[in-house]
Amino acid sequence: IMEAACQCAKRGVEVHVKIMVPLVGHVNELTFVRERIESVAKAVLKEKGAKVDYKIGTMIEIPRAALTADEIAEKAEFFSFGTNDLTQTCFGYSRDDAEGKFLLRYVEDKILPENPFQTLDTGGVGKLVETACTLGRKARKNLELGICGEHGGDPQSVEFCHEVGLDYVSCSPFRVPVARLAAAQAVVKDKFVGSDSR
Hints:
The protein has 198 residues and is an alpha/beta fold. A 5-stranded parallel beta sheet has the order 1-2-3-4-5. Helix 1 runs parallel beside helix 2 and helix 9 packs across helix 10.
């Protein structure tokens, strides 16, 4: 990644590299990996004689990471919530097993209001996201926050992301128009409700 970034920088392309470490459950894991990433990145930049802006962050996919986000934010410059995996680890469901065997029945029988892999479960998984946002930004005010996965293309989930202060959502290409519209509607709704309450 850094070699490619250096080549682009030398051609005059403005480059901002983000290196994301997945499945962190404890800050020590991120510290351990971050040291190795920085060592390699610095060596490549020195060898190539280039200057490239890069950030190191993590995917929040484990409930413990969300609950200790203040510690993790000391070592991460951004969080990307992997809400598919966070849903699996929060519910204790394997997505493949659940959707193929019992999850649709759970929705039909009103055991669950919606499929939590399609629409973010704001009462459980969402509380972990909100907690991580609050704790993370207490430790690092300029912490960049976002989600990646199919929830990023679901209008209800996008609205929730706006409400808790996420900076971006990411989703598969065919969902981008829906995500953009949902994000715009969330901002308009927020401004309308905010001005209406004054």
